[in-house]
Amino acid sequence: MLGRKQSLRGEHILADYGPEETLNDSTDIEWDNKRWIRWILRVCSLVSLVSVSANTPRSKELYPSLIYATFCSDLFITLLFTLEMVAKMQARGILKGDVPYLKDRWCQYDASMVFFLWVSVILQVFEMCDWVGQHSYLSVLRAPRPLIVVRLIRIFLKLSMPKNRLKQIIKRSSQQIYNVTLFFLFFMSLYGLLGVQLFGELRNHCVRNDTDEEDISLNSLAVPDTFCSTERDSGYQCPEGMKCVPLNLAKKVSGFNGFNNFAYSIFTVYQAASQEGWVFIMYRAIDSLPGWRATFFFTTMIFFLSWLVKNVFIAVITETFNEMRVQFQQLWGIRGHIQQEPVTQVLSGDDLGWKLTQEGISYEERVLSGDDLGWKLVHVDGNKPRGWAPECCMRVVVSAGYYLLIMGAIISNAIAAASLSFKHDGRKREEFYHHYYYIEVGFTLFFNLEVLFKMWCLGLRGYWRLSIHKFEFLLAVGTTLRLIPYLFDSPFTYFQVLRIVRLIKASPILEDFVYKIFGPGKKLGSLILFTMCLLLIASSISMQLFCFLDNYDKFETFAHAFMSMFQILTQEGWVEVMDETMIKTMRETTDEIAPIVAIYFILYHLFVTLIVLSLFVAVILDNLELDEDFKKLKQIKAREQSAGIQETLPLRLRVFEKFPARPTMARLHKVPSDFSLPKVRESFMRQYLEEEVEEEDGLGKGRGGLLGGEGGDEDASISFRKRRPVRLLTPLSHPRNADYEKKKQGVSNIICDANNQRLLLGDSGQIPLPGKSIHAQPTFSGKHNWLEQKSIRRSVRGSVKMKQQNYDHLKENGDIGVMNRTSASRKPQDLDIKMLQAKRQQAEMKRNQREEDLRENHPYFDTPLFAVGRESRFRRLCQLVVYSRYDTSHKDPITGKERKIKYKRLHNLLGLVTYLDWVMILVTTLSCIALMMETANYRITNQPWLQIAEFAFVVFMSLELGLKILADGLLFTPKALIRDMAGVLDLFIYTVSLLFLCWMPQHVPPQSGAQLLLILRCLRPLRIFNLVPHMRRVVSELCKGFKEILLVSVLLIVLLFVFASYGVQMYGGRLARCNDENITQRKECVGVFVREIFVTKMKLEPKVDEKHPAMLVPRVWANPRRFNFDNIGSAMLALFEVLSFKGWLDIRDVLRMRLGIVSLN
């Protein structure tokens, strides 16, 4: 795809006026195609959007001058676009010609916009003449007018991309979106049908016994209103004095949620799948019907529809976005690295060659100069910032001490701002930050002096060169203006709280991470611009659709409409907006309009939540994606690090190296000699001995090598096993045979040395490893393989003593190049895979050889509990129990090759873990189920079957850990139980369970050791993560991303602190009020008052002779119940709730009521 350079330039997929877009001002063209005319028309389209956004009844009531302003602007714009349309029809023809007007799609769009403009002008004339009411539903005819702004937007959609390429991408992406849409509709239909069958109508309510079912009022319901069940053995039962009856109410009164039929069920399922208010629907079903139905239905629905389908949409959008990334690279720009200092190319070299490198040099430039003695880099002053300060001041600016001083001042300023706290004790708000004002004056003077000092040292041009200096200068100007008394408590506070953002520069890792998230400005900026344009258009359309509804403030002005559509975008309270609009529409028009309103809001919600928000995820993932060259370098670096780690043994095994070597010795008996031979190493004697190995079929014994022969014992490859009865390799009665054997031995040594040389030179062929076989060579017997292993061991021991070898002379094809030629010509991204394979294999050989040396020189090495012999049959039996598993391979009895069998997923599942692990998975699962059954009254201390489950878990885990310890050891063995955190967690869970079982406390006081044991027992399900390999791998990958998770958390905390500090300084101490809305002064907030209470969400009203349910409550002057900004802790907690998209509407409404709409900036 990248190689098709000839197709990167093609015709524009979108042209402003079709083929005439290629014309310019220098040719003889019509007036309507001139560039300045086209720009006037684009500006008029923007003015038309502003005009239609201000054309509502409420806006005209607030600002009467808008009536004539909007009419004049609409009339002028309509005439101008009409003239343009007529001119194009005359020039191109209407239906006939080369490019007729009505056969071009963009021209059809322009003509439709002109039609709606005339409709809007005529409708406004009728309104001005009072022929049509101000709140007439005819205002919906203006709804398509906001689409005229597409004339302005489409100039940004011209891409240097061929049509065919774009069509292919759109075809593939549309097919994927179509498939995932079908996937979504399938689950919607499935749960819609299940809802109808499982629930049906949910309209049973608790009412008073004397209630007339045909005349229900607000006072007839329970407080609060409760759904109930007519069956005694399920659901909620009404209290005494009330009865459970089905209410026959209109949908505009009872609401639209329910499972009455398939349409209502689909509507309710979509609301619940959006995770907005789904718990209330679930509890209604639980109160009305058996609880298992609602539990099963809603939990599975949330899993499949809310999580699975949504993530599939994100994956599809991300994949499509990645496919189009190459095409949009020219539009968005190429990702680069942060360069805060001038970059200079420097020529460097040695005796091997020369190369050009890039170095970031702080305010200086170095050039290459030379003489007869050699070459060196010298400093020049051509690129040095020219300031007025002496050289010593310049050294201060670039010193680490000065940098730390500035960072310390920023932290001190943040701490001083965070220490601001407000209390409601009768004092005025100004008294709390009276001293803070003078502290802020001091910090502002300090940072202003910093800016002046840098300007003095670097000069104006040198200071303005870096973007961080521009940001510092902006903060200095803003904080200086904030010191004006009447501006101190104003939005200028943003400049002060943004100082802490400079701390991001203190961490290069965090700075690079932030840069990667936001990426090139055009990429994320284009997406934000697209989202804002979508919100503007959708808000204007929705406002014109629903502005005729009287006494409904959600869409009465553009500001309210924009907030409502943004609220739907965030998925907070969007169901409330839709339901209220449907009810208002039904009251103003007819009931048949409500489904159309619901479809409109559902389609908008579906688009913005599944498409637009997925685009944000795709952009951020694309920004975090590394370039291919850097990705390869990072992978190679990780491989080299892993190879280096494998060379060393864990610390628990290196402990044996601190002790003196005591190898196992052997004494030779029955040797005819006049002198007694000393003891020799057992490993040395094994080189001249051969063991007899039984064949697999049990018919006889034969010679088997450690590396050769398929019929050898599978445990024969383990060199530390006890040997069977041996005999001399060279019988005294066959000297010729001995000579023949010596020849074979020499040939095998030559082959082994050749293999070792291939290993050191990085040949691409297979390299033999200790204990592993290369191609089967039946001519070699066991003794030759022993000698081969000895030769490999000798080679590895020699390589261990060598320093780290340089493999740069190795090439991918196996050739040996010259060192200077390779190092000078090869690029960093030219990766040598063979070199890494050789390093990894040699590191593995070194590690294995060190284990063999420790096993040979230390008798207690690889000895479980220092008591069980490493060669004992008891340990072999324990290993057989621990490692026994189902064999998933099916071999042909004749050829011995593995047969491919279909439908063996169950077999693969059985072979996933060992039999012992399967038993423990089952026992742990049953034990966790028993833990779930425990309650405050149904406890393990008084329920025998819970005690049996606890005893069974402890007994089985004792057997499991005992077998694993006896088979592989506890700590100081290669495969010890405690070799990683998984083993530590297993041992901790077992210890906690054992202590609790031995103690079994009857009384558990709060904050006691018994309660701590009960809490720690909840870690038991984590055992399943250790036992299942796939789950353990997922947890491991999650832990590997700890660094990125930490960076995101730090960035989140910094941003939270910025906005929380702003909230404390702006809103601290200003949100408290009296719970009686009629009282505005604190001194008057005393006594009691009657307050109406909430009863139901249904639109029921009291009868004429009835009053709304109310109760007598005391007057209290306090903050809102859930949040406040009186200190930095409460402010950060409130903003964290806003980040979850839950509860931010309450904060918005409180700020708007207390401080006005200006506080929502």
From TrEMBL:
GO terms for cellular component: plasma membrane. GO terms for biological process: positive regulation of synaptic transmission, cholinergic; positive regulation of synaptic transmission, GABAergic. Its main location: membrane. InterPro entries: Ion_trans_dom (IPR005821), NALCN (IPR028823), Volt_channel_dom_sf (IPR027359). The keyword Transport does not apply. It comes from the Eukaryota. Residues 35-327, 402-625, 915-1148 form the Ion transport domain. GO terms for molecular function: monoatomic cation channel activity. Keywords: Membrane, Transmembrane, Transmembrane helix. The chain crosses the membrane at residues 36-54, 66-86, 177-199, 296-317, 396-416, 436-459, 524-546, 597-621, 909-933, 945-963, 984-1002, 1045-1064. The keyword Transmembrane helix applies. It is found in: Membrane. It is a multi-pass membrane protein. This is Ion transport domain-containing protein. It comes from Petrolisthes cinctipes.
